[in-house]
């Protein structure tokens, strides 16, 4: 998966194309107070290999649990 930058009517937007997206989970960071929005994917092993930093937010590196049951 790779984030894609596009120009929209409201300015630049970031898209990450994914199939079988589950419901959004919102988790507060108890130390900083930021809210993490997490979108679970139905396919094992799908995620972002690297952190992607933007002006207003970061897309964190991730991987979904595979046959070993490990989540990074």
Short description:
The chain is an all-beta fold and 72 residues long. The protein contains no helices and six strands.
Describe this structure in words.
- Helices cover about 0% and strands about 30% of the residues.
- By secondary structure, it is mainly β.
- It has one domain (about 5-60).
- Strands 1-2 form a two-stranded antiparallel sheet.
- How many runs of DSSP E, i.e. beta strands? 6
Mean pLDDT: 80
Low-confidence segments: none
Which range does the strand content fall in?
25-35%
Q: Whole-number radius of gyration? A: 14 Å
Coarse shape: globular
Break the fold down into its secondary structure elements and pairings.
Blueprint: E1 4-8, E2 11-15, E3 25-28, E4 35-38, E5 52-53, E6 58-59
Antiparallel strand pairs: 1-2, 3-4, 5-6
Which properties best describe this structure?
single chain; 72 residues; mainly beta; two-stranded antiparallel sheet; two-stranded antiparallel ribbon
């Amino acid at each position: 998966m790779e984030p894609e930058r596009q120009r929209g009517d409201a300015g630049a937007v970031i898209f990450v194309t994914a199939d079988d997206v589950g419901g959004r989970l919102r988790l507060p960071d108890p130390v900083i107070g930021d809210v993490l929005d997490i979108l679970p994917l139905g396919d094992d092993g799908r995620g972002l290999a690297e952190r992607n930093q933007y002006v207003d937010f970061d897309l964190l590196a991730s991987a979904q649990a595979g046959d070993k049951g490990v989540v990074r």
